Structures are given as C-alpha cells and as structure tokens.
Amino acid sequence: MSDASRREVRAGLEPCLARLWRYGLVLSRASDVAEDLVQATCARAIERADQFVSGTRLDRWLFAILRSIWLNEIRARRVREGGGFVDAEDALSTDGAHLIETNILAAEVLKAVGRLPEAHRETVFLVYGEGYSYAEAAKALEIPIDTVMSRLAAARVALAKLK
C-alpha cells in the first residue's frame, strides 16, 4: 500500500463523515445503524486505501463502500431470516417513513422523501442531496442512466402528489 494513498484516505475521511452519516440514514432510516455504517466504511477505507485512485473523488469512493456494506447487511439479514439471496434492486424497496425533527420544513421534506421506495430515496439523495450528476449516480448505483432519470421522475411525481 502506498503511503500517499493511505495519507490521502485518512486525511479525507473526517470531512466526509457527516455526508456519509446522512447517506447511511437515508438507506437505513436509523441513526444508530447509520453510525455503524460510517464506522464500517471508515475501517474498510483505511484497510483498502491502496485501492483508492489518487486524484479521484474520495467522497464517491466512500459512498460506494458504504452502499456495498449496506447491501451486504441486507443480504445477510435476509439469509439469517430464511429469505435466501436477495437481488440488490429488491432489497432497496421498503416502505415506511422516518421523521427527522430539525425544523418543520426539513421534517416535512424528509418525511415526504422518506415515503418514497428506497431505490428512489437513494437516487434522490445522491442527485439532489449530494449533487451527483445523473451519470455519476448511475455509476454509483450500478444502474443505467435511464433508470436514474426514471427514478427521479417517479420521485418528483410522487412528491408532487403529497402537496
């Protein structure tokens, strides 16, 4: 492992922690699970710092690690519960909402977004919350760009109906 990669990863972790936690919260809907995801992401990033390509976006790499950990946890949970292997697309579709009460407007927006299927929520978060381009979101989610656009369109329609 190169010392430069290790230093770059370690130096870049702290500025990304809040964003990683928000992403973990979007996926899991539970702050304690989000914290665990961030910790696991940091540990994996440090362990695999030699896989980070210096000069690229560290935050994108960290988000991919966090998402991979989350999907692996969902699959493991399904296997433990007797559900067997689960396709990632199926695993990212759950119901329910989680209200974060920082202020009334933010709580209402988060509540509405929280009602979206998980795949749509995740796409909305990456594009609108984190500023990913459609192409970057497609790459991060390992889906076609048309699917990103479709999910965002469906999310906008669903959110417009909630007004």
Number of continuous helical runs? 8
Mean pLDDT across the residues is 81
Strand proportion, as a percent range, falls in under 5%
What fraction, in percent, of the residue positions are helical? Answer: over 70%
The number of distinct β-strands equals: 0
Radius of gyration: 16 Å
Shape: globular
Largest sheet: none
Low-confidence region ranges: 91-103
The end-to-end span amounts to 52 Å
List the helices and strands in order. HHHHHHHH
Give the helix/strand class.
Answer: mainly alpha
Walkthrough of the structure:
It is a single chain. With 163 residues, this protein is mainly alpha-helical. The protein is built from eight helices and no strands. It has helices at residues 3-28, 31-47, 58-80, 88-91, 104-114, 118-129, 134-141, 145-161.
Provide tags for this entry.
single chain, 163 residues, mainly alpha, 72% helix
